[in-house]
Amino acid sequence: MIFEFKYQHYEFKAFWSKDVNSLIKELKALYAKSYTSQHDSALKFVNERLFEGKGEFIAGQRKKGELYSDLKVPIEVGTEHITLEYKLCTSQLKYLRREIADIEDIFSRNDYFYFSFFLQRVWKNKTKILKVHDCMYYLVAIILSKKVRAIDLKELIDNIKQDAKDFTKKLAQESNVDLEEEELIGVDNIIKVVDLERENQEKDRKIKEKDDALKEKDDALKEKEKIIKKQEQEIERLRKQLKHR
User: Which domain holds residue 245?
Assistant: First the structure.
């Protein structure tokens, strides 16, 4: 299912269904590969739902440090097409400012910019477990066109954040979310979470290795101190013997 709402300078679109739940599972399964794999799966999903799969992936242009469009979509008139850049981000709008900081550069090679993130349906009462159903997860895309370049960046971001709250309420109503007991919250990018967990586990492992090494060193020092103390005691005993001779 899809719900869309046009604001003055941009448009919000949201998808929710068993297919979105399946996409979440697919992204979780891809954590061991790369963020690019996740990104491409979500982009394929959007391409199929919005453009009937007619968009052409421009993965061939990908090179480290180079800029490129993500999708080339043919339009009905002649052989013309539109290009777009797609971002799948974590924590809802947390990284919006970072992603559109170079807005002029983005639209120098693209007609549209799609900023995408996930929402999850949860109980406000955290002790309750929400029954699995078709709209557990939502994929939201904010679609910006070149006309947003005329807007001050801070003003644009503030407006998007404000309108995102309004859209989330509309989306909840559209998908029959009981706002008295339930809410829609941002979902962390799965690969980011896994990577951070891996980083933390690696840090914990290194810290444990250091702790173990320090413990061994400490134990060795204690053992050395014991030996020195015994030697000192033996020396003192021998000195006393010499005095009594």
Answer: 189-245
